[in-house]
Design goal:
The protein starts with a helix and ends in a 16-residue tail after the last helix. The chain is mainly alpha-helical and 98 residues long. It has 3 helices and no strands.
């Protein structure tokens, strides 16, 4: 055991260089793993966002088709919500929301 310790003391520089090399390698690999995990989570988030955007696109395409056909229900909804229009002899109540 004493011989091993004496050998380590005599060869300090190569031992410290080896430890430093292992530490740098460990940090490099650890950073790479963190980047991998982060990228996988980001990909999952973007895939969910893509699905939501695809559904929104489908809904907008459907609305466009209804507008091209001049769907009366849709036109009335737009007239009431976007332009605050009302039918003749219709009483409209407005409330202020605080």
């Amino acid at each position: 055991m004493k011989e091993f310790i004496n050998a380590l003391v005599k060869n300090r520089r190569p031992l410290l260089a080896g430890i430093a090399l292992l530490a740098v390698g460990g940090l490099w690999i650890g950073g790479s793993l963190l980047n991998l995990v982060h990228n996988k989570l980001e990909k999952k988030r973007l895939m969910h966002h893509k699905v939501a955007l695809e559904q929104e696109y489908i809904d907008l395409q459907h609305t466009l088709e209804l507008l091209k056909k001049q769907d009366p229900v849709l036109l009335e909804k737009i007239a009431r919500t976007e332009y605050d229009l009302a039918k003749p002899n219709e009483i409209e109540f407005r409330f202020r929301v605080k």
